[in-house]
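ARCHIVE ENTRY
Sequence with per-residue tokens
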Amino acid sequence: MIENIDRQLFLFLNSLNSPFWDKVMSAISGILIWVPLYVAILVAIGIKYRKKFLLILLFIIIAAISADQVSVHLFKNVFHRLRPCHEPSLQGMVHLVECYCGGLYGFVSSHASNSFNVAVLSLLFIRKKWFSVFILFWAAVVGYSRIYLGVHYPGDVLAGALLGSLIGWGGYELYKIIDYRIIEQRDNLRRSKNEEQTNSEIRT
């Protein structure tokens, strides 16, 4: 039943197309077009956190790799759910742009996983209301573009968004734990040095 609803919703959303939106959604679904956004996010985080930036960058890289690889190896290659454009029962019913269909399997959407990972991780670091609204809207539009282009069901996108959000949140929480331990160790070293200095002064 859920799968049938997912399929019917896909057919409805995918049917809402036009030559103009074909170009727009194809661009939105691209990678290189968003490089300036990614750079701007990194710059904003670097300005805010300064000395902690390299540590944060490490966790951003780990989260990005995880969101992409988990979506493929633990989902697409496990569940083997055909993309709608590869589904035999939907042949002739799916609107494609430039005949692009992508790989055979589509659950979950890697685009949705990657974009929501970026969104959640960056909004947790930047913590500005306007940015949170903007970046979540951006991630949702990227996810929708995959339905528009005929390569993913809405369920693929929603599951990918949830996966990416969890990985982004998990990456942030892991960063906080490591950062706390680094600060704790630094404070312990400083305390030990102060105690040694005090003891030395007492002896003299």
User: Anything to note?
Assistant: Residues 2-174 form one domain. The chain has a mean pLDDT of 93.
